[in-house]
Design goal:
The structure holds two protein chains of two kinds. By secondary structure, chain A is of the alpha+beta class. Chain A contains eleven helices and 14 strands. Chain A has three domains: 47 residues, Uridine Diphospho-n-acetylenolpyruvylglucosamine Reductase, domain 2 (2-Layer Sandwich), CATH 3.30.43.10; 107 residues, Uridine Diphospho-n-acetylenolpyruvylglucosamine Reductase, domain 3; 94 residues, CO dehydrogenase flavoprotein, C-terminal domain (Enolase-like, domain 1). In chain A, 33% of the residues lie in helices and 25% in strands. A five-stranded antiparallel sheet of chain A has the order 4-5-10-6-7. A four-stranded antiparallel sheet of chain A has the order 11-12-13-14, with helices on both faces. A three-stranded parallel sheet of chain A has the order 1-3-2, covered by helices on one side. The model of chain A has no long low-confidence stretch (mean pLDDT 97). Chain B has two domains: 76 residues, Ubiquitin-like (UB roll), CATH 3.10.20.30; 71 residues, Orthogonal Bundle (DNA polymerase, domain 1), CATH 1.10.150.120. Helices cover 34% and strands 15% of the residues of chain B. Chain B has five helices and five strands. The longest helix of chain B is centred in the C-terminal third of the chain and has 17 residues. The chains are: A alpha+beta, B alpha+beta. Chains A and B meet through α2 and α6 of A and β4 and α3 of B. The structure holds flavin-adenine dinucleotide (FAD) and FE2/S2 (inorganic) cluster (FES) (2 copies). Flavin-adenine dinucleotide binds next to β2 and α7 of chain A.
């Protein structure tokens, strides 16, 4: 690691000021940031640790779940309130990495990082979440821009994420057997207004919505309804773990499983 | 330099360290507590697992300054004098190790597992919960067995709450 100045501000206003410095970097759980700094892929002049801001906690009220940006994966997975409101989201958090990573990593860090194989982006997109920062609110569609790329401006801090409560939802993850990240992950959410389906791990441009599945499932919410719908392999990733055609196949399989398991 | 105060295995320590100092370096190099190992240094293997305020974390991926004020338990903090912790005793009894390099991390994860999941652990749960701990020697079989009996012994000894 290259040297840096470490700050743990006590207020959001101070954090914003510090994070606005030219080469400053925000740190949440550090589960992604510290490994990148060790590899010298990141060399921030200043680290602004958000752990002193108290941005954690989960509230469920009037059809919405609000999760503070600094809420750890383990606390999302273990929240009794969330398990009742959106069980799929709690289960998703419990599938991230391993117990030690879940004790430290945060939802805000995961969403800000926008790893194309990360789990949370699919939930944000399928549930139609709102990402709230120190300056504005964004829909998940506007927030996720591409591979490791979001609409966040330098120094902008996510404070919380708001999820509408669906009628039913489920997340199915086909894991890379070594890293346990998603080779394909499909989040299906059924609302009174229609069904939303988001796919992570597969797209060469990051998380995306599967519109054909959505249209068919909105008419008939059953695995059968999407059985015959082909997922194109164009613009899907190919790597040593799975080629694009296999990923395309997995998207159909995972989506059908998610529909069947939705509750 | 930054001043860091930690309670490590019940003892309060304050050191001036470079902000880059990882918790595992603080423990091994500043405190000479070399039971906590570094296997990968990339957050994969779990050899460096310690308890931070009671929760298992990978100390190779934590800045010491970021946990300033925390209570840390390392493998050296589990035994009571000459008496091994029930989980340590179970690893010895059931041959839950070969070279022993992964063992401190395995045991710290196992004790954390009992805190979260209770003293009656089936093999499927144990294997799932060991996601973040890698062993290059044993094939895991006896580790799983050791954790099963270690958890049971913790229940009997009333140490599950640690
Ligand atoms: C072994 C291992 C396995 C993993 N497996 C999975 C997995 O299966 N699925 C998965 O989804 N993830 C996985 N992860 C990643 C994990 O979920 C991380 O916790 C997450 O990607 C980053 O969260 P963090 O809180 O640690 O963020 P940090 O590492 O602290 O930050 C990540 C990035 O986000 C920025 N940032 C952080 N918080 C904010 C904020 N509030 N506002 C604006 N910017 C912010 C930082 O500046 C940085 O660029 C794994 C990680 C490890 C080490
Ligand atoms: S040394 Fe920390 S996880 Fe391997
Ligand atoms: S006993 Fe050798 S690495 Fe596990």
């Amino acid at each position: 690691m290259y040297p840096f100045n470490y700050h743990r501000p006590g207020t959001l206003a101070d954090a914003v000021k510090l994070a606005g410095a030219d080469e400053a970097k925000i740190m949440a759980g550090g589960m992604t940031l510290l490994p990148t700094m060790k590899q010298r892929l990141a060399a921030p002049s200043d680290i602004v640790d958000l752990n002193g801001l108290g941005l954690s906690g989960i509230t469920v009220a009037s059809g919405k779940v609000t999760i503070g940006a600094m809420t750890r994966h383990a606390d999302v997975a273990g929240s009794a309130e969330l398990q009742k409101a959106i069980p799929a989201l709690a289960e998703l958090a419990g599938m991230i990495g391993d117990p030690m990573v879940r004790h430290r990593g945060t939802i805000g860090g995961s969403v800000a990082n926008d790893d194309p194989a990360a789990d949370y982006p699919s939930a944000c997109l399928a549930l139609g979440a709102t990402i709230v920062t120190n300056t504005r609110e964004m829909s998940a569609e506007d927030f996720f821009v591409g591979l490791f790329e979001t609409a966040l401006q330098p120094g902008e801090i996510i404070t919380k994420i708001i999820f509408p409560v669906p009628e039913k939802a489920n997340y199915q993850k086909f894991r890379n057997p070594a890293s346990r990240y998603a080779i394909v992950g499909v989040f299906v959410a059924k609302f009174a207004s229609g069904v939303r389906v988001a796919v992570t791990g597969a797209g060469s441009g990051g998380v995306f919505r599967q519109n054909d599945f959505e249209a068919a499932l909105s008419k008939d919410f059953s695995a059968k309804a999407i059985e015959g719908i082909a997922q194109s392999a164009d613009s899907l990733n190919s790597d040593i773990h799975a080629d694009a055609a296999y990923r395309a196949h997995l998207i159909g399989v995972m989506a059908r499983r998610a529909v069947e398991a939705a509750r | 330099m930054a001043s860091v105060t930690l309670s490590v295995n019940g003892k309060s320590v304050t050191r001036d360290v470079d902000a880059r100092t990882l918790l595992v370096e603080f423990l091994r190099e500043h405190m000479r507590l070399t039971g906590t190992h570094v296997g990968c240094d990339t957050t994969q293997c779990g050899c460096c697992t310690v308890h931070v305020n009671g929760e298992a974390m990978k100390s190779c991926t934590l800045l010491a300054v970021a946990v300033d004020g925390a209570t840390i338990t390392t493998i050296e903090g589990l035994a009571k004098g000459q008496d091994l912790h029930p989980m340590q005793a179970a690893f010895r009894e059931h041959h839950g190790l070969q070279c022993g390099f992964c063992t401190p991390g395995m045991i710290m994860s196992a004790v954390d597992m009992v805190r979260r999941k209770g003293t009656d652990l089936d093999d499927k749960t144990i294997r799932e919960e060991l996601e973040g701990n890698i062993c290059r020697c044993t094939g895991y079989h006896n580790i799983v067995k050791a954790i099963h009996y270690g958890a049971e012994a913790m229940g009997k000894a009333g140490t599950a709450a640690e």
